[in-house]
Write a structure and sequence with these properties.
The complex is a heterodimer of chains A (about 350) and B (about 300). Chain A contains eleven helices and 14 strands. Chain A is of the alpha/beta class and about 350 residues long. Chain A has two domains: about 1-130, Rossmann fold (3-Layer(aba) Sandwich); about 135-255 and about 290-345, Rossmann fold. The longest helix of chain A is centred in the N-terminal third of the chain and has 23 residues, at about 1-25. In chain A, a hairpin with a 5-residue loop joins strand 13 (about 320-325) and strand 14 (about 330). Chain A has a six-stranded parallel beta sheet, sandwiched between helices. A six-stranded mixed beta sheet of chain A has the order 7-6-8-9-10-12, sandwiched between helices. A two-stranded antiparallel sheet of chain A has the order 13-14. Chain B is an all-alpha fold. Chain B has one domain (about 5-290): ABC transporter involved in vitamin B12 uptake, BtuC. Chain B contains 13 helices and two strands; from the N terminus they run ααααβαβαααααααα. Chain B has helices at about 5-30, 35-55, 60-80, 85-105, 130-135, 140-160, 160-170, 170-175, 180-210, 220-230, 235-255, 265-280, 285-290, and strands at about 120, 135-140. In chain B, helix 1 runs antiparallel to helix 11 (about 235-255). The longest helix of chain B has 27 residues, at about 5-30. Chain B starts with a helix and ends in a 13-residue tail after the last helix. The interface between A and B is large, with 45 and 43 residues.
Chain lengths: ~350, ~300
């Protein structure tokens, strides 16, 4: 019984703190951010935090931002999101796929709070979703890899078999095969977004099996660093990682959330916010490419040309004909994959080795 | 398929586990359960990394990592041995403290790249084909991990000091009655545990992935803790466990790369499953375990009792 009353006291004091927080929040709008990794990952979460700082810079005293980092996907995130909503945060950005259902659940209970969920596909009256068309960058990276690789093997360190990641793998290979039809991809799933040691080990395994291009869909610079030490090439993920691999980084796909975060926070403050689903790419500047380095000039020119073509819409990475692993045509010649196929992508294109985990 | 690089990768993956487990083995043998391995490793990792970046000296970096691990362990020692705080709770707190403190110190080092440690080549020996590469072409810490586990095994079973340490862990009241200072022995054992955890952390941030990333141990401290139980508190088995775990961790990545059709989620589980299976096999013989497990583990000691 003593323990119980101890918890009750803690609970009461927490509520008191929460209430006092609401009391102070009149002058400024509180904006919350929930991150899946540490802000020091120098990848995905780091870029979201750069976006948060952009909001602070653009709106100054009008906002107060809070962030919670390294939040596990699933039930634990619901607690964190609810905590932010209950302490007077008016806009809450939840920045990982696995926060989708918890975000929706909390949103139902806090109809006045605006939620922004990254990379999800479910919206509601006060939950908007947003994501970047990173596959555009992956396609360009693939084109570069197709030109640079000597072994024709790409090593891909992947996190979880969700459509977002599968789409990246396919886009990369389609890009590579557009310049070199012999290219293939070996994928190693590490089943984590963030474990530098394991990500690095996966990269080593792939290099030992003959890959001379390493790319990744996990959040730390470790795979790229392994590429640097082993003398092969690679790509940065989410942010420019050239510092970790001055000789190995060919380019990097940079996520740029800054203007989106500023815009949506402004909209929430002036009341023009509404639920939406946006998917922005190179054209809108949510996806950017780091400088093309460590490659011959003609490859730089080709990469630039591909980037320009995607930006002005004359090239779509998922243009037919596209075959899946069994050789069946899934996108016919002259057509492009529709957004349903892109968002729910659950097959490998021809040339990816192994089978997709279910 | 060339096996050599695979073996080298396995050695790098197993070394941090072995280093930390060696320290925890001594700590637990003295009757103290320190669950703060993860936190001590992280503090060691950031201290080593920060020192390496600012001084450029690998030796100083390794020392800084090890001694800062020992320093944090001494906080644990004071709290549990002198103030008789609950060891489990204090250990958990130490882990949380380590995660936070290392992130705080590390915020200035995010995005800083570091050259990996130079390898300690034994002249002549490392040119022996195959064996030379496997045995004589590593960085200092790998040799240290082998040396330390051997030394610890010898210390526990063959020396008088080792016997005293084990006596303290078996029955602190009897050891106290014999005139040994329980607190001193345990204090030293805890500090040694921190020292080795710090070394394990240094290995992560200096060699394994030469960068600082928050929470970069990613659970390796907990695995080191489990390895001590897995090895039934015996040095040789702890080393075997560390290498078994490292081997399966690396092999599962290779199996995926070969395109063998096994669910990757299952492969991720495999090192843990294998560890559990071996644990079950070993523990069939209950008497053996009871013989090796320190009886006073986790129990606070006060002379007045």
């Amino acid at each position: 019984m003593r323990i119980k009353s101890f918890y009750r006291e803690i609970l009461l004091s927490l509520i008191a703190i929460a209430l006092s927080g609401v009391g102070f929040a009149n002058a400024e709008t509180k904006v919350g951010f929930v991150y899946v990794g540490p802000i020091g990952d120098h990848g995905w979460t780091y870029r979201h935090d750069v976006g948060r700082l952009a909001v602070e810079k653009a709106l100054g005293a009008k906002v107060k931002t809070t962030f919670v980092e390294s939040v596990k996907e699933g039930p634990d995130s619901e607690r964190v999101i609810r905590q932010l909503a209950a302490t007077g945060h008016k806009v809450i950005f939840t920045t990982s796929f696995g926060f989708m259902n918890p975000t929706l659940k909390v949103a139902k209970k806090f109809p006045d709070v605006k939620f922004e969920h990254a990379t999800g596909y479910k919206q509601s009256k006060n939950v908007a979703t947003f994501s970047g068309r990173f596959y555009e960058g992956r396609y360009i990276a693939g084109v570069i890899a197709g030109k640079i690789s000597k072994t024709n093997k790409i090593g891909y360190v992947a996190s979880f078999p969700i459509p977002e990641v599968v789409r990246g793998i396919n886009a990369f290979l389609l890009g590579a095969r557009s310049v070199n039809p012999d290219m293939s991809i070996n994928v190693v799933w590490v089943n984590t977004w963030y474990d530098p040691g394991k990500e690095g080990d996966a990269a080593k395994a792939l290099i030992d099996q003959g890959a001379d291009i390493i790319t990744q869909h996990t959040d730390s610079p470790a795979p790229l660093q392994v590429a640097e030490n082993r003398g092969v090439k690679g790509f940065g993920q989410a942010s420019d990682m050239i510092k970790f691999a001055p000789k190995a980084q060919l380019s990097a796909i940079i996520d740029d959330w800054d203007s989106y975060y500023v815009e949506r926070t402004k909209a929430a403050i002036d009341g023009s916010w509404n639920s939406q689903d946006v998917w922005l790419g190179l054209k809108e500047g949510m996806v950017k490419m780091a400088p093309y380095t460590n490659m011959p000039n003609d490859v730089v020119a080709l990469a630039q040309k591909t980037e320009d073509a995607i930006r002005d819409g004359s090239l779509h990475p998922f243009s037919g004909p596209i075959k899946d692993q069994s050789g069946k045509i899934v996108v016919e010649a002259g057509k492009v994959a529709d957004s349903g196929m892109l968002l729910g992508m659950n097959f490998y294109v021809e040339g990816v080795q192994g089978s997709l985990p279910k | 398929m060339d096996l050599l690089p695979v073996i080298l990768t396995i050695i790098t993956a197993s070394t941090p586990l072995l280093l930390a487990a060696t320290g925890e083995l001594i700590t637990e043998k003295s009757g103290v359960l320190n669950l703060g391995v993860e936190g001590m490793m992280l503090i060691g990792a950031i201290a080593a990394f920060a020192t390496a970046v600012s001084t450029g000296s690998a030796l100083l970096a390794i020392l800084a990592g090890a001694f800062s691990g020992a320093l944090v362990a001494s906080i644990f020692a004071v709290l549990t041995l002198i103030f008789l705080a609950n060891q489990v709770a204090t250990g958990l707190a130490l882990t949380i403290f380590g995660v936070g403190l290392s992130a705080l110190i590390g915020s200035n080092f995010v995005g800083v790249a570091l050259e990996p440690l130079p390898k300690l080549n034994v002249d002549g020996l490392s040119t022996i084909p195959i064996l030379g590469k496997i045995l004589f072409n590593h960085d200092v810490l790998v040799y240290l991990s082998f040396g330390m586990i051997f030394l610890v095994g010898w210390f526990l079973s063959k020396t008088r000091a080792g016997l005293i340490l084990r006596a303290v862990g078996e029955s602190h009241d009897s050891a106290h009655a014999l005139g040994y200072s329980i607190i001193t022995v345990r204090y030293l054992a805890v500090i040694f545990g921190g020292f080795m955890s710090g070394l394990g952390g240094s290995y992560l941030s200096l060699v394994y992935t030469p960068l600082w990333a928050e929470n970069m141990t990613a659970g390796r401290g907990w695995i080191a803790l489990a390895l001590v139980v897995f090895g039934t508190w015996r040095a040789g088995r702890v080393a075997f466990g560390a290498y078994l775990f490292g081997t399966i961790t690396i092999l599962q990545l290779h199996v995926q790369g070969w395109g063998i059709n096994i669910a990757s989620q299952f492969m991720t589980m495999l090192p843990y499953i294998a560890t559990i299976v071996v644990l079950v096999l070993i523990s069939r013989d209950k008497g053996r375990i009871r013989m090796n497990a320190p009886q006073c583990i986790g129990k606070p000691f006060h002379p007045s009792k």
